[in-house]
Design a protein that fits this description.
By secondary structure, this protein is of the alpha/beta class. The strands form 9 sheets. The chain has an 8-stranded parallel beta barrel with strand order 24-25-26-27-28-31-33-34, surrounded by 4 helices. A 7-stranded mixed β-sheet has the order 1-9-8-11-5-3-4, with no helix packed on it. Helix 2 packs across helix 3, helix 4 runs parallel beside helix 5 and helix 6 packs parallel to helix 7. The protein is globular. It binds (2S,3S,4S,5R)-3,4,5-trihydroxy-6-oxo-oxane-2-carboxylic acid. The site of (2S,3S,4S,5R)-3,4,5-trihydroxy-6-oxo-oxane-2-carboxylic acid has 9 residues, from loops.
Length: about 600
């Protein structure tokens, strides 16, 4: 049995102050480039509110005779679709927080010399995985992928995979007890059985070296008993062919130069990159670009870029629920493109790999975030280890995607010393794990020096490359018109992204601009915000809150919210509100002016 969550390595750092790299991820990179058997589809599911299944549901029993007293049966239980949250598949489960036991049967033909892993794209929140009655491992964290080796437990012929999924909120969890999105439970990402050779290419980083437009630097990690195999890296279109021999731990590092056509939103060029050994070969599509900070500007490929963005949840358009499919991603990112965006903030947790890869192909820059949100248990070493593992696995999955330019370590966390220690550690981890991207966080701690001046003054800014500011002037305080005079400043001379602003509106509710919940109110708010933001000298971009209305248990007003956060510029049914068009016009103006 392997535990996916590694030891709280940084607890020592918290008390000792020394720095170390996080324990390496066990994730197999680029699952789409491997030999896989999909385990998506209809799984039998037993809803278990009292955790009775702990007594042994992993054994997959059922009453077999008239006198057999077994009080559960997967065979007789209804199905839930995977991937998918359980909340939107059965009315009874909309508000459910508890355990559901899932079972999937499948046939397998064992192949001599190969290894197999079960791979989960995401399970919210806690997963315990059993194969053929044996525990393979546990995983905590609702949005990051994980895999467990299944080689020795797999049988030739029929197999059964059982997963106990629990989505109960926990004070020591990440996120913890309160967050402004639906706590969708279930196996929300794709599941597959991955077949690899005995020694295989587990992960690799093939990226431009920090600051260079022609030096590719990176590493390859082999996994298996014969690590001393020659590795070949080819980028046929760029005429690259390099070979390396890894060390005894199966790791090879490299650096070489190449003439490359750089990736950008206007020109999202991806190259076929092939890594191979005598027994394994993996193809990936990789773009090459440089992202840097110079003073208060963000530079893409050496040139200043203004990030015309939008924040978004991974909520399914039209049907509601957790989005999971390539079609969902296509709709959501397509709307961001229609708005005129070159950038998306994927709030508040890692979104699916489909979405990130689509952003790579569409030319949308990405802010990617872990769910360190509002208040969590800052002094608990297990909570820190959990947040670090989520950060590490988000980076492990997406570190070859050109679209991703920011790792965000948190959102709107309260300023206090123990939180600063915690988040500074995460920022440091992100740099150790990936030296080529920028580190950010969405903050909201401001000083009001005078009625018309607000200064972002969170000390966390010292640990970041780019500052994120969530401000709700005209919604959680003041009037939209207050924006006409307001000046925003930052205590640090770093690039600023206004990572949230906005207000609620119900699509189709029309009225005066001072009538709350109308499209006019929201639109008026945008009309006063946009000129205000343009006056901020170090503004490098913005991601208004939010692309589409989304479900939230905190938003209860009947007839208006009905458990939805209504700050979308598009409704959950795909209808565009007035503010959508105001923002679209603004972004067009910026794009026309070359911003
Ligand atoms: C915030 C949070 C976001 C909420 C939003 C709101 O500051 O970061 O998750 O949904 O405000 O609507 O209040």
């Amino acid at each position: 049995m392997k535990r996916c969550l590694l030891l709280p390595f940084s607890f020592l750092l918290l008390v000792g102050g020394a720095s170390a790299a996080p324990a390496p991820s066990t994730l197999i990179a680029n699952i789409g480039g491997r030999t896989t058997l999909s385990l998506n589809g209809a799984w039998r599911a037993i809803v278990d509110p009292f955790d009775n299944g702990k007594s042994g549901f992993f054994r997959n029993e059922k009453p077999r005779s008239k006198s057999d007293r077994v009080e559960y049966s997967f065979d007789a239980s209804p199905v839930l679709n995977v991937p998918g949250d359980w909340n939107t598949q059965r009315d009874q489960l909309m508000f459910y927080e508890g355990t559901v036991w899932y079972r999937r049967e499948f046939n397998y033909r064992k192949r001599e010399g190969s290894r197999a892993f079960v791979y989960f794209g995401a399970v919210n929140y806690q997963a315990t995985v059993y194969l053929n009655g044996e525990k393979l491992g546990e995983h905590e964290g609702g949005f990051t992928p994980f895999n467990f080796e299944a080689t020795s437990v797999l049988r030739d012929g029929g197999n059964f995979l059982i997963v106990a999924v629990n989505n109960v909120r926990r004070p020591d969890g990440v996120p913890a007890m309160k967050f402004d999105w639906w706590n969708y439970g279930g196996i929300t990402g794709d599941v597959s059985l991955v077949e690899v050779p005995a020694t295989f290419i587990q992960d690799y980083s093939v990226q431009l070296s920090r600051g260079s437009q022609n030096a590719i630097a990176g590493w390859v990690q082999l996994n298996g008993s014969q690590p001393a195999q020659k590795i070949t890296l080819e980028i046929p279109e760029a005429g690259v062919r390099q070979t390396f021999v890894p060390d005894a731990a199966g790791r090879a590092s490299f650096r070489f130069t190449a003439k490359l056509d750089l990736w950008s939103p206007e020109h999202p060029k991806l190259y076929d990159v092939v890594l191979s050994t005598a027994t394994d070969a993996v193809h990936d599509e990789i773009g090459f670009r440089v992202i840097e900070v110079q003073g208060t500007q963000i530079l893409l490929n050496g040139k200043p870029i203004f990030l015309r963005g939008i924040s978004m949840h991974e909520e399914a358009p039209f049907r509601g629920g957790r989005a999971f499919s390539p079609e969902d991603s296509q709709t959501l990112l397509g709307w961001a493109k229609d708005l005129g965006c070159n950038f998306v903030r994927l709030a508040h947790y890692p979104h699916s790999e489909h979405e990130i890869r689509l952003a790579d192909r569409m030319g949308l820059l990405v802010w990617s975030e872990i769910p360190v949100y509002w208040d969590i248990d800052w002094t608990n070493p297990a909570t820190l280890a959990n947040a670090e593992a989520q950060l590490r696995d988000m980076i492990a999955r997406d570190h070859n995607r050109a679209a991703v330019i920011f790792w965000s370590v948190s959102n709107e966390t309260p300023v206090k010393p123990e939180r600063l220690t915690f988040l500074t550690q995460l920022a440091q981890d992100a740099r150790v794990l990936d030296s080529t991207r920028l580190v950010t966080s969405a903050m909201n701690h401001v000083d009001n020096a005078s009625a018309d001046v607000r200064t972002l003054s969170d000390p966390l800014g010292n640990a970041l490359d780019v500052l994120g500011l969530n401000e709700y002037l005209g919604w959680y305080g003041g009037r939209p018109e207050d924006g006409d005079k307001m000046q925003w400043k930052t205590a640090l001379a770093k690039p600023l992204i206004v990572s949230e602003f906005g207000g609620g509106a119900q699509f189709g509710r029309r009225g005066d601009a001072d009538e709350i919940w109308t499209e006019e109110y929201q639109d008026n708010l945008f009309q006063h915000q946009l000129p205000m933001l343009e006056r901020i000298p170090n503004l490098a971009g913005m991601t208004p809150w939010v692309l589409m209305d989304f479900r939230s248990p905190l938003r209860m007003l009947p007839g208006v919210q009905d458990y939805h956060n209504r700050k979308g510029v598009i409704s959950d049914r795909g209808e565009r509100k007035l503010a959508f068009f105001t923002l679209q016009r603004f972004y067009k103006k910026l794009a026309d002016a070359g911003k």
